[in-house]
Amino acid sequence: MKHLLFLSGAVLTSALTSQAAMRIVYSENFNDFSITSKTNGVHALGGASAAVTYREFFSSTGLVNDTGSTLNFTSDGVANRTRGAGVWLDTREWSPGTVTVTFDISGFVAATGVDSGSFLQTYTASGVDDTNAVGVDIHGSFNGGVVLSGTATSSTLGDSTAITADGTSLTHTFTYAGEEEIGLFIVHQAVNGDPGGTSAAFSLDNLVVVAETIPLPVQPNIVLFYVDDLGQQDIQLNELDNLCPYDTPNITKLASQAMNFTSGYSPAPSCSPSRAAINNGQHPAKTRFTHVSLDDVDDGKSSQLLIAPYLELQIDRNLLTSAEALAANGYATGHSGKWHQGLNAANYGFQTVNEDRGAHRGMSPDRLDPDAFASDTNASYPLTTERYFPYSAEFPDGIRYPVDEVTDSAIAFMDANKDGPFFLNLCHWMVHWPVLTRNEDLLKYYCTKFGVIYDSDLRDSMGDVKDWTTPGQTNPYFGAMVTTVDWSLGRIVDYLETTDDPRNPGKKLIETTYIFFTSDNGGAEQHGQEVISDNAPFKYGKTNPEEGGVRVPFVVSGPGILADSEVHEMVNQLDLFPTFLTLTDTTIDAADYDELSGLDIAPVLYGEATQVLDALDKPRDFLFWHFPHYSHMKSSLRSGDYKILKSFETGVYELYRLYDGLDANGDPVRLDIEEANDLVASTDPEDVTALAELTAMIEGAFVDYNAELPYLNPDYTGVDPATVAAPDVNTFTGETRLAELTIVSSGPKIVEASVLYRGGPTAGKTDVVTDEFILGMREPATTSVDGYTVSAVIPESITAYCFLLVDENGYMQFTSEVSSPLLVTVPDALAHWPLDEVSGSQAADISGNGHHATVTGAEWTVGVDGGALYFDGGADADADYVVIPVGAVSGINNQISIAMWVYGGTTQPAQDSVFHSRDASDNRIHSILIPWSSGTVVWDAGYDSVADASDRVSKGTDAAIYKGVWNHWVFTKDTTEPAGVGSMVIYLNGSVYDTDTGTYPMSGMNTTWLGSGKDATLSFEGLLDEVMLYDVALTGAEVATLYASYTLPSDYQTWLLNYPGLSDVTFEGDPEQDGIATGLEFVLNGTPTESGEVILPQVDATDENFTFTFTRSADAVPFTEQIFQYGASLSGWTDLNITEPRASEVSLGSISGGLQPVTVTIPKSMAVDGKLFGRLKVLSVVD
What CATH class is the domain 221-362+370-688? Predict the structure, then answer.
């Protein structure tokens, strides 16, 4: 049976106030009580002797349960008959030690006799009267106890048993050795053949069992099992009107060992804000992180009256997170699965991070493709060897599941960290869109269950996979997703149940681990035409602040938590952070704790309280949701039985009464959880009072949480421009980095302003951010007293910004973006080799310092900006390299920056040296390999003669990073800052790629090469362009500005093929292997509207004309016009218009792969010194 923690307030208060450190471990108010199985609970006893093991005489004889809440016992007229009530506690999960168990027996009174209505009973030694006693049971035998007397303290157990003087409680203290069961029995026995006696009946009411100093695990583990878009009605646990058709046996099993909160809520009706709120413990409205992180500065549409607040790209890294707090207390912290909070989880205190999608990756070309399902032959998605639920006629032995990275990495983290406490944040990508499953057998199972024919009913009349449009909980794909999540939970629990806890010998990890199972928001009911599920009877779903959008499963298991219990108190995932702190005995600064928006629910979990209380021991008064997004733009608040919603577009309130108090069993009386009957206009006094109180609450919440409300849209049709603030002059002063914006003083003034960082360092999804200020951040700007000037100091690392303005009339707007090179000035280079010479053996230095380099073997071609050099990686007999003069490097010591554009080829997969330098003693001072062996980018810098070693930064990466694509690499080293450790940083395309420390000096650089190592070893294969050398360590902002100063040739993918003189070499530029070996080959696919320029390399004249040949897909839409340009240099071009024939008009000849050749011929007379360049630009296409 469910154990309901809704007891009589007087009884509970009495128990708790008299025993300060107690936990309720069992409670029963006897409403609709009945005899149950031999589990934790109350049992009636009957038998010839109280000495008999109580498990041997369970009986309902003499037990009467009236319609009220009193458990009554009467004599059946048999002599020497024992009658009683007992509570058995399964304490086998308790740790050994001294235990005090207190039983509240204030409800025990005599029903008849001289002591009717009194706790104390008359006891006559001669036995002419009945005997009533309270006893404590160990190991199932009624070994001893005390007669019901306020002063009796006897016990045959050798421990301490006592009843309080006023007869309200019995306390038993004993040494607990483990693996024992404890019982309390209140016994009435008729003796000496007198079945009637003078106290022939007694009753028991509101029995509360409280345990003090129950040993709990020290630093228990925490597992947060977080599901995406799982509604409360999507599992077989909180079923209301209809049974849930999705099989979730593991969730149900967990709930049977846990506490289930039927009024569990997410902090927000959408993904990111809920996750962030759990992470930092603060309400989404308070952190202004109320929806999916977008960094969206688009203006509103003309049809929108309101526009949503701006959302930052990531959550504030300065907010303390639960992972950081637990890590400081010695916890290993690990995240597996979906993060969705902008930056990688490693930026927020997680030491082990895996954000793979697991089995929920998209399926191509569709969700019924046979090759996309998991199988024994699918290397990317294999199946488990074990079989699991469900079992059916079609699958009597169960079903195998796709191996899931999210689950496996979570188990691997626990296993690697089980020697110490751990915090696992397991966040599934399921059951979020796309609705699909790689488990074909499970999909077939649900098709059979739902009466769907696999797979014909899943396709339309043309045989294409169709959207599922049948209403309700009928989607077989979604059912498979839900059960897959349940399977994952089962694997996590199974690992914990079967794995020994090294810190607690004799125990399994499950005995020292708390599991929190919940979801980020209510269920998503529909996506486009696809019907996903149904939250009924709750209203709406995800992205709505009604019940269907925020009501979620909420189950907690672990040591000290009453199994199979149900609580109807409102709880929110905001409560997890403070609860984690209590469960793990973790402390944080008081200032940080005061910022937490949730409440500690540990007292409820332990049974110490039946209500969620705040710091002043006052019950929670409301929960609040703020969602100023999409067209509905609403906020809501629930207090007690009532819920209020506010629409920002209309300003109208809605009021609903979800429940009408509690029934006799302590269950909420359902009234309008459908939110169908708006009571705003009700004249009922209760409703009128509720409307006034909740209106004040929600308006107060906007203020208390500093909630950002929707703004008026200045682009809305009909808005008078005179009512909107008008930005005037936007200036930036480089010396002070002060950005200043003036507003036209004849119009509205500015009341709130922020500066948005639109360019600067980023870390993507994999790295930890080291910069204080990064792309996507929002910082407060200063508004002048008169409201007509806005200013902000822009950090040096930021390369672009704009202002967000809110004027006095409530209109929000964004200013134009100000970007580099205005914001950052890059220092002058010590040497700059643009490699634009076209021919010859000299690479000119254009820095003005005259450090011209010498070219050997490398061939001139076209690069990022003008020319470039091609290095063949040792493909021919002659080595390719460039020698940098000693004068360019000899003065470098403590600081250096090396910048270059690199396009790696694929003929040589590794050992590609792009920069190498040695001193006069042949000691290596620098070595940059992109890549070294095993695909590792390596930079060795500096040399220490004592250690005979260099400082090193290295990072393994995918070949796609450095092969077949232009990338801008910058390598900086400063041996003096930070003091004592120095720094080395590798930048890739303007952002930090990897970092390390480094103090070894770089003095004495002598012989230095580009494109090769010492003595032409480790030869590079590919192109180098725009090589720069600095005797300072560039900052991140300077690197970003340098990168932004270049514009890569924008086109469809460009292929390296047939550099001059290399017609016998096959490059990756020939993906179709069609053998074309003239000019630069590339393939044009699809229907582009316009492309940028694609530069073809120069070609030597062999006959009377130059011939440039490229290829395009035969089935691509023909182009209306192309412009081919040719020139003898990269600075002067002549147009040659081409009208391309349609595919059907071109003979493909012997070309394979569905490609057509397009050939352009230029007269030889156009060349200079026998050299000519060509480039192509596509202008438009035929629809």
Answer: alpha beta
